Amino acid sequence: MKLPYAKTQSKLDLPDLELILALHRGRTLAGAAERLQVDVSTVFRSIKRIEKDLGELLFERSRQGYAATELGIALAGYAERIESQLEQAREAALDTGTTPSGTLRITTTDSVMHSLLLPAMAAFSGRYPQIELELIASNALANLSHRDADIAIRATKNPPEHLVGVRLGRLEAAVYASKAYLAAHRHIPDYRDMDWIALDATLPDHPSQRWRRLHHPKVIPRYRMNSVLSVAGAVVHGMGVGVVPLALFRDNPEVEVVDGPIAELETELWALAHPDTRHLQRMKLMFEFLRGALGLPD
């Protein structure tokens, strides 16, 4: 959108691009201010000045925050590439023998976090003590372009084409119950007639939900949970049967498989990143580490 006070020549510079990128990623004035470590009024005045200088609207304002226009997205993209090049230049300026350092922000689901990632991270931190880790458990796919995270570890057979990454192995799942629960319910011969623990309406399209509806349409879960980790916890505590990834119950003597592993629920685990960041030393080190550290079948 062309603004009425367009100037004949733009004065756009690097700090302006940094601010545009921060607002694009932060989505609100407060979010951008936190990223830039300035106050909200500074962000507001600066974005108004930049738009006035350009004679173009860069962000649409709404109750949900600031959404970048087509030009705003394009300029944020330039800023991201500059940011990535600057990080690579800083690394190149260091001696090759310098200890790897920096911050890595990794996001994954709560079940992968607790069963696979956390058990491996102490070894990574011991090997690279100068790399700081920020670990986020979330079922939402992080926007790597917005730098919500540096690496997203996700279960998928079809990783997004605009991201790069490494395949970490196969994930399998089965129907489990605790041994104590099975002992107390010997009088029920068919596990389909037992108390079912399932995900709730916040995850209607989860593969375990689709599989249960297709193969056991008459089953009505007695318990519903908002995460796979919670389903696993309910199984361990003897509340009933539920679909749980094998990785969550590795070497757990309190549970046993009552059906599976289920071929339809098999998927792959990927570590994904934005192409502009894949060359950073700490990213490459994490990718290489994860390939061999999680113990997943090929």
Can you describe what's shown?
With 298 residues, the protein is an alpha/beta fold. Helices cover 39% and strands 22% of the residues. The chain is built from nine helices and twelve strands. The protein has helices at residues 14-26, 29-36, 40-54, 70-93, 110-127, 179-184, 207-215, 228-236, 281-293; strands at 59-62, 65-68, 102-108, 131-137, 151-155, 164-171, 173-178, 196-199, 223-225, 241-245, 255-259, 267-273. A five-stranded mixed sheet has the order 4-3-5-12-6, with helices on one face. Strand 8 (196-199), helix 7 and strand 9 form a beta-alpha-beta unit. It is elongated and about 80 Å long. The N and C termini lie far apart (51 Å). The relative contact order is 0.14. The model has no long low-confidence stretch (mean pLDDT 83).
Helicity range:
25-40%
Largest sheet: 5 strands, mixed
Alpha carbon gyration radius: 24 Å
Which residues form runs of ≥5 with pLDDT under 50? Answer: none
How many alpha or pi helices? 9
Shape: elongated
Beta-strand content bin: 15-25%
Multimeric organization = single chain
Helical/strand content category: alpha/beta
Distance N terminus to C terminus? 51 Å
Q: H/E order of the elements?
A: HHHEEHEHEEEEHEHEHEEEH
The count of β-strands is: 12
Mean pLDDT: 83
The order of strands across the largest sheet is 4-3-5-12-6
